[in-house]
Amino acid sequence: MKFGIMFANVLGFTRAEGAVAIAQAAEASGFESLWAVEHVVVPARYESEYPYSDSGRMPGTDDVDIPDPLVWLAYVAAATNTIRLATGILILAERNPVVTAKEVATLDLLSNGRVTLGVGVGWLREEFEAIGVPFERRGRRLDENIAAMRALWTQDLPTYQGEFVSFTNAICRPHPAQSSVPIVIGGHTDAAARRAGRLGDGFFPGKGDFEHLVAVMRDAATDAGRDPDAIELTSGGEDALGPDALDSVARLADLGVERIVIPPLAFDADNIHDALARYGDEVIAKA
What is the pTM for the complete model shown? Predict the structure, then answer.
């Protein structure tokens, strides 16, 4: 089982000292990956419903710092050696895929192939409006963006023709250090599960009926002529934090989960090392 840390780039880890502290502590404690979140803007008093809490609001206040995940990951890449650099998730449906492909490939090259790109459609309509991207049909836009980025990463003369993205012989160098950056589909809906089955290298259900979503993903993969077993499963690991953590890890492993992602166990640079080291000794080393 692999273990990652979610929300790595917020709270006490938005500044240089905290960013380096959590990255180096995680690497030293046996964590496989850091997952950085994204919101370009959070419009004050937004009305869209945040799907991952009962309140319909994101944790914290609207004016909390959320550093750009790719820039943040580039910074901590220079302070680490082995830990994977993941986005959880990048709102790719609101981004220019050609520019993003260049940024991700550059990060992957400079980090010696350590990038995992978690992507999703997004939920915050007001953010899309502020950026100037239509909220409607964002699922189709995400599908095209993924295909276009893979073309840019893998083709010598990248060409892609879609409804939202089109280019011909658009050379985009450097290519990633990996043959292509693995893309993890995040989301909590059947649509996200089907997208993971059709297009994803991995699937990270954000909430909901995990077994149902995995079954939907597997069916979609089979329908698309893909091997569902090749799609890596990631799960949130709140149940893997208490005294029954090892039992929870074993249960998730039985469901086919290959990576468990937990929130930071401390929220400041002074305490993060000891908190993660304890988890490494008590859970990761025994899982």
Answer: 0.97
